Amino acid sequence: MSKVEKDTETWREELSEQDFHICRLGGTERAFTGEYYATKTPGVYHCKCCDAPLFDSDAKYDSGSGWPSYFQPVDETSISKRDDYSHNMHRVEVLCAHCDAHLGHLFPDGPQPTGLRYCINSASLRLEVSE
């Protein structure tokens, strides 16, 4: 999949106000309010901005954090990471590798086999349900 590049105004027109704030400006939704935080429906979670597959429901688990959490992406090349020093702390930001949409953050407190917790905003995702 090639890199998706659009100007800010195009993204603003294509996304809802909340989705634009989260995906393009690095915002976050309130805990326990997102569409997918408690979803157990099988399928693949895609990027809301560019439709790239990001996380499989088989890697989803209830972290108790109030956001959808996954222990691994569908493929390491589907996401990118960068240091985030906002809010007077160091975190690792998770982005869609195809369009640079802000997805959430990565923490080292997840379950095995990876020990990782990809804490992702529902507003950054679209679930493609498995038949």
UniProtKB/TrEMBL annotation:
Residues 8-130 form the MsrB domain. Zn(2+) binds at residues 47, 50, 96, 99. Its EC number is 1.8.4.12. Gene3D superfamilies: Peptide methionine sulfoxide reductase (2.170.150.20). One of its GO terms (biological process) is protein repair. Keywords: Metal-binding, Oxidoreductase, Zinc. GO terms for cellular component: cytoplasm. Binds 1 zinc ion per subunit. The zinc ion is important for the structural integrity of the protein. The active site is at 119 (nucleophile). Pfam families: SelR. Its cofactor is Zn(2+). GO terms for molecular function: peptide-methionine (R)-S-oxide reductase activity; zinc ion binding. It is an enzyme of class 1 (oxidoreductase). InterPro entries: Met_Sox_Rdtase_MsrB, Met_Sox_Rdtase_MsrB_dom, Mss4-like_sf. It catalyses: L-methionyl-[protein] + [thioredoxin]-disulfide + H2O = L-methionyl-(R)-S-oxide-[protein] + [thioredoxin]-dithiol. Belongs to the MsrB Met sulfoxide reductase family. HAMAP family: MsrB (MF_01400). PANTHER family: METHIONINE SULFOXIDE REDUCTASE, METHIONINE-R-SULFOXIDE REDUCTASE B1. This is Peptide methionine sulfoxide reductase MsrB. It comes from Pseudomonas matsuisoli. The gene is msrB.
